[in-house]
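S1.2 Input.
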Amino acid sequence: MSAYSREMHAPRRPHKGGKHNQEEPTSLAKLLACPLAITCFQHQSCYQFYEMVERVKYHHELARLFVLHLHNGQVTLAGVTFTLTPETISQEIGIPNVGEQWNKRQLIDREHYEPYIKVGFQRHVSRVFPFRYLKDTYAPLMKLIIKYFSCEDRFFTYMPITSNC
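S1.3 Output.
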C-alpha cells in the first residue's frame, strides 16, 4: 500500500456484515421487482447501463485481468492501452458525469437521511445503524443500490458517515 493510500483512507476495522460476496449483477431481475428502484435508476440515468450489462453480460477472466493491470488510470492488455478517466467512462457507459462527487467517507448531515429512518429509531441513529431502521418503503431500494453500485450482498448495517451523530 502506498503512503498516499494510507493518508487518504482511514484504517479498516473488522466488521460483522457476513461473508464478503462481491459480484457484479448481470441481470435486471431484482431491479425489476422494485418499481421505486426502476424510477430512481432511470432518474439518475443509469438504468440503460444495467440494461446494456444484462444484454452483453461480461467476461469474468477478462474483467479480472483488466483490474489487475490497472495502474495510474491506464490498462494495457494484448498491446492495447486503455486510458480511464471519469469522462471516458461516462462516454462509454452512457451515464452522465454530472452532480456532486461523493467519497463514501465524506461526512453527511443527519438531515439528509433522517426522513428515511423509521420514526421510532430516529433518536437511536448513529454513524452506523442496522438496516431494519430504514423505512420499509426505502429498504428494498437501498439494497438494490448497494447490490448494483457496490456489487456487494451484505445488508446487515447501513453506514452513512455523519457529521452530527
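S1.4 Remarks. The first helix runs from residue 3 to 8.
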